[in-house]
Amino acid sequence: MAPLALFLATLLVIWTMTVYAMRSMEGIDPSLRQFTPILLWAIAIILWLRWQRISHPRRWLGLVRPSMKTLGVALAAFAIVVAWNLIRVSLARTPGGLLAELPWEIYLWLALGVFMNEVLLRGVVLTRLSEFYDPAIAIPVTAVIGVLFRIPAFFTTTVPMPFDPMVLFAVLIFGCIAGLLRHFTGSLWPALALQWGNSLGQLL
User: Fold this and answer.
1) What is the model's pTM?
2) d(CA 90, CA 92)
3) How far apart are CA 19 and CA 27, in angstroms?
4) What is the DSSP string of 72-141?
5) Residue 204: which pLDDT band, with cuts at 50, 70 and 90?
6) pLDDT score at 153
7) d(CA 204, CA 200)
8) Residue 186: how many CA atoms within 13 Å on its side-chain side?
9) DSSP per residue over 170-191, as a string?
10) CA atoms within 13 A on the CB side of 160
11) Nearest-angstrom CA–CA distance, 117 and 62
């Protein structure tokens, strides 16, 4: 467990410094803001796999070809979370319509960002924690770690950004659901489908 703790602590410090730097620089290319965390997560994941000498990394991360049952669970998770967001938006506020207005490259960055985030959290972190702890502990702890990585965006910035506990609560809940999907299917794809659907739902 010590290697994982060291890995996460180092990554959190680097991520916090990166967020501060990106938000402090004026005129930075928006594409660079999108690309930086994806690159950071990718480097971190590769370094972890090399450091721990993980054999069959795709299988260990849950990125093997999904079975028909797993694919069905993934599609159901995607559909349910999109439907939930549609209901939430219709009841709570007027739809923003961002989903139809954003340029196509935003969807690419979104898909890649969610992919790297899930590989890091439900791939690396949850898989390693599950080797030492019961899923009842490993899944929520992984979700809490995901919340910790979201917090720097609120505080490490020169631009005032309102702190919204509900955002962090949603990250926690969806992190737990994604962890359950990862645990019960043995695959990362249903968790990815859930988070992809929720990310798109936030743009409604």
Assistant:
1) 0.89
2) 6
3) 15
4) HHHHHHHHHHHHHHHHHHHHHS----HHHHS-HHHHHHHHHHHHHHHIIIIIIIHHHHHTTS-HHHHHHH
5) low
6) 75
7) 7
8) 6
9) HHHHHHHHHHHHHHHHS-SHHH
10) 1
11) 14
